[in-house]
Structures are given as structure tokens and as C-alpha cells.
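Hi there. Long-time user, first ticket. I'm pasting a complex I've been working with (about 525 residues overall). I'd like to know whether the download I got is complete or cut off, because the file seemed smaller than I expected. Thanks.
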Amino acid sequence: MYMPKLIIAATVLALSSPVGAQMYGFGKPAADREITGWNIDVSPDGKGLPAGRGSVTQGKVVYDLTCAACHGAKGEGKPADRLVGGVGSLTTARRIRTVGSYWPYAPTIYDYINRAMPYNSPQSLTPDQVYAVTAYLLHLNGIIGADAVIDAEILSKVQMPNRAGFIADGRPDTSNARCRVDCK
Amino acid sequence: MAGAGSVQSPLQHLRGMITPNGLVFERSHAGIPHIDPAQHRLMVHGLVKRPKIFTMDDLKRFPSVSRMHFLECSGNGSREWSKPFGKSVQISHGLVSCCEWTGVLLSTVLEEVGIDPKGKWVLAEAADAAAMTRSVPIEKCFEDAMLVYGQNGEMLRPQQGYPLRLFLPGWEGNMSVKWLRRLKVGEEPFMTREETSKYTDMMPDGRARQFTFMMEAKSVITYPAPDHRLRERGFHEISGIAWSGRGRISRVDVSTDAGKTWHEARLQEPVLSRALVRFRFPWNWDGQEAVLQSRAVDESGYVQPMRTQLVAERGYASQYHNNSIQSWRVSNTGEITNVHA
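Hi, the file is complete. Here it is re-exported in full:
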């Protein structure tokens, strides 16, 4: 006689329990084909790079047509970011931060162009076009040769000049005192 | 709005701790998208047991919370490193605001999908034209991160990420990704453009600090500021705002003699963690030149640094995270200018 009552009581308690780490059942399962459509990011090791390939030569064509108006004929910048040059400048008084001198991972170039460029019509380039323009930028920065062709495997192995240029957050790095009188 | 933009809060006109929604600072990387909330979806996938797609109705069904927090762009004050730049406190310090944020704790949604123990970083992706992405450590996701849809009692405005944004209390504003459409759990940071080529802090040796998330304690006097002019001698209430990403502000001191002598200001209650606090200090202006400064101390014991102390550590090229003590010079005719003192 008592057992069913106990079970009902326990069930009610579980349903009305306010404690955390609880599941509500909201949202629908994401199917693999749905995830594939959304999952556009590329990791620094190249994971997520799609099939396709592009050459420096093809990249110049894409660049001249879709990038040069904002980034300059040779990536010199203005009005948008400078993309070329500056290697070796980071330790000087006039630091020039570009794709070549500053960016630590080559696959990030693909990721960013693919998701955000060209500025007036992002995500309009084909994978081959993104590979090509990435290759052209790497070439303008002296990182790959004029006859290079890149794909997922080759781009993943490109070593960027500033790969070792980043360190962890060092803060708090100041220790001001709460001086009240006769300070400084 | 088309194109990237940055619009500061008019701190010189604000009186309390809350920033009204129409006056919250704005920063976007490729314009402000117009999103139909009925069509908007959030996908949560990657190293999770149950990848899911949520509608806005789904997200609003979860238990909700409302919390008061500041939001500050880490570029706030980026033009003040080498010489005084802003001729208004809106320009020099206006990339900070404080609101009541309403939404669901991110931890609630992550429990719903079930995190694989290997998952250590979460990629947050926006639905704007930049499809902006940042990586967030899993610890912050479970500590106090929110998925926000309400702001100061109404729905988010388009400029603030309508219909959904990530919100990371106390951390640099860029990480609180607006127009949020996707969260992907991974083992490593995703090294996106925004966390490598931008939002990294160049040090004097040519290397750059990365993942500088914390917004350290900071304060500024908002009256009187270069936007104002003292027209009479006598009583003036010095007033300003202070905040810290590490928690509560414990004290604010004010100097009227360029930092030689400091006096404790009154803090307006309630003093909330990772929120703006209004401070006030009564001052009798004698008509002579004065240099006004404020200095915040937070509950961790951290004291807002002098500009010279920051420069000694970081040089002039780090751009982000300038939380130094600000100086306003009052001339004997009552005009106020931005100075380095």
C-alpha cells in the first residue's frame, strides 16, 4: 500500500526540484547535416579547412578584384588594415603589424577571409578562391613562393614568422600604493 | 548602421551608476545586423553529449537571472597612452557602460547539452557580417557567464546584440559576443583573428600578451570634466565612476593637487561586484589652478595605477587595457583640460 505513494512522492519531488545541474529538455537535437552547415571555423592546426586548393597566381586575380580597393594594390593598406610587410619591425619603435609580421597561424587567415571578407559580401568566396587569396597574401609577405599552390594540408604546415611572438597575460603587473599625503 | 563603428557613452551627462539603453556605448566590426528573433537560432555543439539548436523561445523558458554589471571595451583609453587625446570624458573614457542584464546562465545551457570533460574552451560566434568569434575558457562559462536577451528591463537593442548576446562579467567587452548564433566546445583556444591579430597587448620586447581578459580597476571623474566649465568659486561636488573586473570597489580616493594629497570619496550604495559605482567628494574651489584625479581600489587590494607605472611595465604600444589614473587640469578661469600630470 505504501510503495506507490512513495514512488509518486519521489517523482513529484524530482519534477519540482529547483537544484542545479538539471535538464529541462528544451531545444531540438542538432542533426549532423545541420552542424555541417554552421560549423565554419578553422582551428590553428588546420582542422576545419575544407577540400579545395588555390595558387598564388589565381589569388592575385581574386585579390585585385575583391580586396585591393580597401587593402591597397599590394596589401599596403588604407583605408583598411595593412596586410603585407613589417617582419622584424615588432622590436623597433615603429611596429608594423600585418598578416606577415604579426599573425601567428596561417589557417587563421583562411578562417577570417572565409567568414568576414570581402567586407561588402562576406562568405561569398568559394573555398578555392579563399585558398588562392590566402596563398597570394602569404606570397606577398615572402612566406611562400610565386608558384605555390596551397590546400588544407599545405596551409596547415605553413610556419608564420611571429609564431612565437605571444606570451601569457602578466597582470596584475603594477603595484601602486594607496598613498594619502606627500605622495610622488 | 553600415560599416564598423564605435560610439562612446556621454559620461559627462550621466548621474548615477546605470547607463540608459540609448546611451550605452556601441562597437561593431561590420555593422549592426537586423535579426528576426523568430528566425534566430543558437547552436551549441562540439565536445558535448547532446548538440542542440535553441530558439529564442527555448532560451527564455530556462530559469532566468538579472544582474548589474559594467561592460567595458578593452580599447577604452587606447589613445591616451602617449599624450592627452580626448577633449571630452566621453572620448577618453566613454567605452564603458553599466546595465541590468537579464538572461539565462550559460552554465544552465551547458548542463543541458552536457560537456565532454575534454572540453576546455568555447568558441562564441556572432551572426553579424563579420561572423565575429572569440574563445572563452570553460571555467568562465561555468562561473558567471550569461546568455543575455534583456537589458535595463527591455529586450536588447540591435546595437547591443538583439536578440541574444554572450555576457562575461568583468572581462573585455569584445568577448561578450553580440548577435550570438553558435557556441562550439573544443579542447584548445581557436586562435581567431580577434584574439591573435587584435585584442593582444604589445610589450616593449616585441612580444604580445594574449588572452588579456580581465578589466582591471579603473575610475574617472565625470564632473567636472573637459566638457564642463567652473563658472563660480566655492562648492562643487566632484563626482565620478569606478569599476573593477575583479569584484567590488572598496575605496575611491580623490586628489585636487595632482596626486600629492588624497581624500577618501563617498561611495554610493549599493556597491556591486563588477558594476559601476558612483563616487562623490565635496570640494571648495578657490579659483586657483588645480589638477583633479581619482584612484580606485578593489576588494582584491589592487590599486589603480598611475600612467607612468603602466608605461614602465608595458611601454606605449600595448594599446588595450589602459586603466591609469586620469588627470583633469582646472585653470584659474575654470576651464578644464585633459592633461598628463
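A couple of notes from our side: The first strand of chain A starts at residue 28 and ends at 29. Chain A touches chain B through 55 residues (CB under 8 Å).
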